[in-house]
Each structure stands twice: as C-alpha cells, then as structure tokens.
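Design a sequence for this backbone.
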C-alpha cells in the first residue's frame, strides 16, 4: 500500500486539533466524563435570521449548482462588508467564495506555490498552514515569537527571515492558537518591511476579526497600507463570528488575477460551495449585526475567567490575549513532575495526554502549533463547562509530585 500512496501524503500530518477533538468524542462515547476544550467552534446557535434565509433558499428552489467562485449576491455582500467594516474597496471579480476559509488558503497555495518556494509563518501558528504548504511541495520557514513581544511577529524577525525564495508571509490576527492580535501600528511597521521586498505576498487571515476585546481595534494590513493591496489576499468567513462552522463558507479577497487562478483550482477540486449555505451567508453579512457585540462580551467574560483560573494553577502561566477564543498557557513549569498516573511529564504532549487521562479535559499540546511548552484551550464552550474544566486543571496541577 505504501507504494500506492502519493509522495505528497508523506509530507503532511493529520490535524492535531481534529485528532484531539476526536479522541475526546471517543472517550465520551465510552462513558467518560470529558470536557472538550480542543476545538474552535462557538457554542452559540447560528442566528435565526440566517436560518430563515437558508429555509427560504431551500423552498425557493435555490438548490442547484452556482458559479464556481460563488453567487453574485454573496460576492457583492462581501464587497460591501469590506467597504463598510474595513475601508478596503474590492470589485466582485476580486472575491471568491469557498468551502470554508481553509479552502481559500489551500486554493491560494496550490495556485501559486512551486518547489523551492518559501512561506514565512510566525509561530505559534494554526496547524494547517505548514501542512498545506508542504502538500504543495514548498517550504515553510517558521519565525519564532516570544512572550515578550506578545507572541507576534516583529519587523526585525520578518526582515531576518525573508529570502529571495519567500513567496508569502502569513499573518493571522487575532491568531489561533494564541489569540494575539496586531495593532494598527504593529501592522504598519511590518508593512514597511514588506514594501522593501516586492516579491513577497501577504496572506492576511482575518477569520477572528469580530472577536477582539478591551477596546482593541481590529485592522487589516491592506487597509493600513494600501500599497500592499495588490499583493495581499484577505482570508475570512462566517464560521466564527456568526457561529456557522458547519455551513462551510469562507471567502477571499485579492487581485483579480490571483482570484481567477484560485477559481481554476477550486473548479477542479470541489466546484462551488453549497448554494443554500451561500444564501445563508448573504443574510449573515447583510442582516442585523447587533448580536455580535453581545456574543463578544460573553467571550470576553469567558476569556477573563479562564485566564484568571489557569494563571493561578501551579506550574502554569497564562497571558491575557487580545482576541479570538483561545488562550495559550505555558506548562513548562510542570515539566519534571510526576502525573497522578506515575508518568513523568516531560513535554507539552505528555501534559495534555495526562490531563485528559486524569481529569477528562481535552486540550491541544503546543508543539502542534510550532511552540513547545504550551497548550491551547478553547473557551468557545459554555461558561459552566469552563468553570468545571478550570477546577479540574487546577486539581491536576496541584496533584503533580516531584519525580
């Protein structure tokens, strides 16, 4: 069988976040009391007006193939969203609708990357970035960040890692797994570097843009520095802010030539996204937006709860991020101690496995995101579940013993 499989498959690994979530489901199916904080999926329902729009699309016969790059009505809604919320002007031809934000990213990489090309990715990073780069036969260049700079890429690090082979730099703000978000001034400083390197394109993954807290103002680099617009791809979607993860609608905005190339890829891989989901997304972008503030306040309260509780744990240190719905604590202070099972905790993977075994709390180890010594907690769960999970994590850390 190994000779039958593609060599490309050997270059990539299964998603660690999906694997952790699946393991939690399996244990729950076996009767274990498991709290899964390993997946990035809001526990809110899709807004009612969006559901109604989907039903109307179904009963109205809007169930057939659509243009590969999306229905005109949704692309126009995306154009208006960028004008209204981000101050960036696009045309319909500069928009593509895909089966989730992940496909937008995959389309872009498949349409542009060749062997020996490099993609600059700050760590910690979303698990799929380097895997999609590898699938295309290109190379990920990882730029490490530190707690001192808020787990964000600095202009100095960006300059240091750019080479003649660099084709893309990926910016995810607010970020998964850290929740770190770039200020307008931080983006402007990065843009100054990128303006000196005209061969480098920017992939701005803005999927968590509506989830920022404490008066933080979201900004996207194409708006901060308009001179980068013609080599920037903005990736976004309705999954996170609108609680539409299962609807699988993402969208990309960039130069028409790039969007056309991505459309060619998508046309051969999946064709268009679901017609019904596209009409639901039109309602999401054009309909009432007031519920976003209320949900954002709930997420902020959950963030503060989780940060305060985890930062009080023996051996953990948890920063308070600007956005998204993740925290990324350091668990390095637990290394060298013994878990209740008697197994020594040697790294973040062992920490996550032992926490699941002892307390039934599922998290994702930091090495999966390119930053060992940490773990990711998603607070996109009910407050009741988070309170109980934090108690269990505190108990687990308190019961660790010297080796």
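Sequence:
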């Amino acid at each position: 069988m190994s000779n039958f499989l593609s060599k490309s498959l050997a270059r990539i690994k299964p998603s660690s976040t999906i694997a952790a979530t699946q393991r939690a489901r399996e244990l729950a199916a076996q009767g274990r009391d498991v709290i899964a904080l390993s997946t990035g999926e809001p526990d809110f329902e899709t807004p009612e007006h969006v559901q109604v729009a989907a039903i109307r699309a179904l009963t109205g016969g809007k169930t057939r193939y659509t243009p590969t790059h999306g229905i005109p009505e949704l692309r126009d809604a995306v154009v208006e969203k960028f004008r209204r919320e981000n101050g960036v002007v696009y045309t319909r031809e500069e928009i593509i609708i895909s089966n989730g934000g992940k496909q937008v990213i995959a389309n872009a990489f498949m349409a542009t990357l060749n062997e020996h090309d490099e993609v600059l990715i700050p760590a910690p990073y979303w698990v799929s970035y380097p895997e999609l780069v590898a699938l295309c036969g290109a190379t990920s260049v990882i730029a490490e960040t530190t707690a001192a700079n808020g787990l964000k890429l600095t202009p100095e690090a960006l300059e240091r890692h750019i080479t003649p082979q660099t084709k893309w730099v990926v910016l995810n703000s607010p970020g998964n797994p850290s929740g770190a978000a770039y200020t307008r001034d931080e983006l402007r400083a990065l843009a100054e570097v990128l303006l000196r390197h005209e061969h480098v394109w920017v992939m701005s993954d803005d999927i968590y843009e509506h989830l920022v807290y404490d008066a933080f103002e979201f900004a996207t680099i194409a708006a901060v520095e308009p001179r980068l617009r013609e080599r920037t791809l903005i990736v976004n979607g309705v999954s996170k802010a609108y609680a539409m993860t299962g609807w699988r609608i993402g969208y990309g905005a960039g130069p028409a030539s790039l969007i056309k190339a991505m459309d060619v890829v998508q046309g051969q891989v999946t064709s268009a996204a679901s017609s019904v989901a596209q009409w639901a997304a039109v309602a999401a972008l054009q309909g009432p937006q007031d519920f976003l503030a209320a949900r954002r306040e709930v997420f902020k309260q959950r963030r503060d709860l989780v940060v305060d509780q985890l930062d009080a744990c023996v051996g953990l240190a948890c920063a308070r991020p600007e956005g998204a719905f993740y925290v990324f604590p350091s668990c390095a202070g637990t290394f060298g101690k013994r878990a209740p099972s008697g197994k020594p905790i040697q790294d973040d993977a062992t920490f996550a496995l032992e926490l699941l075994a002892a307390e039934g709390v599922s998290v994702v180890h930091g090495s999966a995101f390119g930053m060992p010594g940490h773990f990711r907690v998603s607070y996109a769960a009910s407050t009741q579940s988070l309170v109980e999970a934090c108690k269990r994590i505190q108990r687990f850390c308190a019961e660790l013993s010297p080796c």
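The domain at 7-45+291-398 is CATH 3.90.1150.10 (Aspartate Aminotransferase, domain 1).
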